[in-house]
Amino acid sequence: MNKRRPNPKQVPDPNEPLWRSTLRVAMPLNLSYVPIGLACGILLHAAGFNTLLTGLVSLLIFSGGAQFLIATMLTINSPLLSIVLMLFFLELRYALLSSSLSPYLKGQSNRFLFFFAISLNDENYAINYLKFATDKKWTGKEALMVEHYSLLFWAISNVVGSLIGSALKIDLGIVNFALTALFLYMIVMQIKNRLTLLICIVAGLLAAVCMMIVKSTLGLVISTIIASLIGFALEATLRKYLPESHWLWKLRSPGAKKSAVETSDGK
Amino acid sequence: MSTVNTWTTTQHFWLVILGFCVAFVPRFLPLMLFTKREIPEWFNEWMKYVPVSLFTALVVKDIFIDSATYQVMFTQIPEMLASIIVIIVAYRTRSMALSVIIGLLGVFLLSLAIHV
């Protein structure tokens, strides 16, 4: 069931072909993309996108949040510039995600980085980040395969959703919650000590305040930068002055003997 | 979904192309820069806190922020309750698919229960 746990009993069969072992890692994500992708395709169809363009947008933008946003903004007839600007602020967060993956992708060609960047996404980022941090054998090649599997499932689900779009009615609010649930899951996976939990709460409060002030999703970018800097400063201070602080203790989880997000020791 | 969008396919096409540009540049530039030269240690330590901050911000936006006025709201009771269910499921099972499906079912049943 769980591919993220570094469990010694789950050491893959050495003869297993690469495409199968990476597919096994990507499968939970692929399956969760199916309902979300179907819903997104249905919404894009309702917004006037034809099936071909729905496939194209899924391949080129490949972001659930961005595609849901396009569908919503098109139905309220927003101008092109305003949609593109909103997309820009929404997608700006990938700068932070791809920076945090870059230590693991040193020495790759520009061509590889190009394809890696195109198919990078919140969810496959989360998988690859965990794999890079916990699995020494995980390389850029495997990571790119996971990205491509998720891209394939995402695009096909979107196209199928677009095709059945006219036949099916779906509640926008409920569909959007699929994305929220995905993010919630990823937060739970990220929380490894009390300090992270604290930062999570701080980030939530900051996000609300920033968005009320800025009145756009740019507030998300601002609050993310501030909250992560607070976390960074707090951890550096604690490690320097109170290395035994209980804030740095690892949290136990019933799902895993070892903490799920164990950073590689000593970097 | 009652309003029908008046855009033509060509306009949709340009939206996709422009959207691709703004989606691609933030993903590619940092990868390109930071795989060629050394990232300072503090930058790595900082980046550790980025995902949790970002995902929390996105969840807060989805549940507590009104997308039209950008004001805080506490009216999405089904979503709030379903979020708690998702957190428990994610914590206990650590399975992404289970978390999403139970979350969707939860929000569906809770909104039925509340609106009936």
Observed structural traits:
heterodimer, A: 267 residues, mainly alpha, 68% helix, globular, disordered N terminus, disordered C terminus, B: 116 residues, transmembrane helix (chain B)
Large-scale geometry of chain A: globular
| Helix-strand sequence of chain B | HHHHH
The helix/strand class of chain B is: mainly alpha
* Classification by helices and strands of chain A: mainly alpha
Fraction of residues in helix of chain B: over 70%
The number of helices of chain A is 11
Transmembrane segments (chain B): 12-34, 70-89, 96-114
Organism (chain B): Levilactobacillus namurensis
InterPro entries (chain B): Brnchd-chn_aa_trnsp_AzlD
Keywords (chain B): Membrane, Transmembrane, Transmembrane helix
Give a nutshell description of this structure.
Chain B: Keywords: Membrane, Transmembrane, Transmembrane helix. Chain A has 267 residues and is an all-alpha fold. Chain A is built from 11 helices and no strands.
SSE map:
The complex is a heterodimer of chains A (267) and B (116).
Chain A: H1 18-46, H2 51-60, H3 64-75, H4 80-91, H5 93-101, H6 110-118, H7 122-134, H8 140-163, H9 172-190, H10 194-214, H11 218-241
Helix pairs in contact in A: 1-3, 1-8, 1-9, 2-8, 3-4, 5-7, 7-8, 10-11
Chain B: H1 9-36, H2 41-47, H3 50-64, H4 77-93, H5 96-115
Helix pairs in contact in B: 4-5
How would you characterize the overall build of this protein?
The complex is a heterodimer of chains A (267) and B (116). Chain A is mainly α and 267 residues long. Helix content of chain A is 68%, strand content 0%. Chain A has eleven helices and no strands. Chain A has helices spanning 18-46, 51-60, 64-75, 80-91, 93-101, 110-118, 122-134, 140-163, 172-190, 194-214, 218-241. The two termini of chain A are 29 Å apart. In chain B, helix 4 runs antiparallel to helix 5. The interface between A and B is large, with 119 and 83 residues. Chain B: Keywords: Membrane, Transmembrane, Transmembrane helix. Chain B: The chain crosses the membrane at residues 12-34, 70-89, 96-114. Chain B: Pfam families: AzlD.
